[in-house]
Amino acid sequence: MASYTKQDVIDTLTDPAALRVTMYVKGLWIGAPSFSVLRLKIIDGSVKVEEGSKTNAYYLGKENKIVTQMVSSSLEHARALLLHECTHAVMDVYRFKVPAITNEVLCYITQYSYLNNKIPGFNVIVDKSLDPTSQNALWDSFYKSVWDYARNLQGYVDITDWQFLSLRNHLRVLNIYQHLSEATMYDHDGV
Ligand SMILES: [Zn+2]
Predict the structure, then answer these.
(1) 188, 103 Cβ separation under 8 angstroms
(2) By percentage, how much of the chain surpasses pLDDT 70?
(3) Are 35 and 82 in contact (CB under 8 A)?
(4) Gap from CA of 168 to ligand 1 centroid (Å)
(5) Which has the least CB within 10 A, 29, 33, 79, 149?
(6) Is 70 exposed, middle or buried (0-12, 13-18, 19+ CB in 10 A)?
(7) CA–CA separation, 14 and 2 (whole Å)
(8) CB of 48 closer than 8 Å to CB of 4
(9) CA–CA separation, 137 and 69 (whole Å)
(10) Which helix (H) or strand (E) holds 52?
(11) φ, ψ for residue 148 (rounded to 5)?
(12) How far is the CA of 84 from the centre of ligand 1 (A)?
């Protein structure tokens, strides 16, 4: 199975729907200017891109490396996920020190801002037949909340307001993030 390439990451960072993401948070501008800086760092190799072999992508802060996911049927969702990982990389480039939970929520907001920009009428459907305490239902409702936050975003993110805190609390009950404590930090030590 093929995976997304360095060129796919670069194409994501020049996608007009990505360049329209505008998110000011504690002095950092996540959007066109920082995506452009990251793109140059990827081109010159100071941020590496590795073609991974999983359905998920991730960012390795210590190694300054984006690991891409396997090629999927939806280019929009694939690019949204790549942009999520690029947002981790941007925070690394700017040595943006916030707890990992906050960092993660910001990446999801970027991901869903992109989807809102990219797909006209984009919506998240919640399967109401699921047990509301099941992980599938908790993921569905998290996506719905992030989508809602992203579409009402006015360019400025206050990480202390209740909507943002609610996303953080929600993230912490999701299976892959339960290991994060309030004080867990990423290795976002610069590139
Ligand atoms: Zn992430």
Answers:
(1) yes
(2) 100
(3) no
(4) 13
(5) 33
(6) middle
(7) 22
(8) no
(9) 24
(10) none
(11) -65, -45
(12) 6
Mean pLDDT of the chain: 95
Report residue 96 as tokens. 């943006």
The pLDDT of residue 186? 80
Neighbours of 55 (CB within 10 A): 10
66, two tokens: 């984006």
Cα of 62 vs centre of ligand 1, distance in Å, is 15
Sign of CA dihedral 5, 113, 131, 166: positive
- Could you tell me the pTM of the whole model? 0.96
Contact 11, 114 (CB under 8 A): no
Q: What is the DSSP letter of 132?
A: T
| Distance (Å) from CA 98 to ligand 1 centroid | 13
Structure-token pair, residue 22: 């505008």
Question: CB neighbours of 152 closer than 8 A, spacing ≥ 6?
Answer: none
pLDDT at 29 over 80: yes
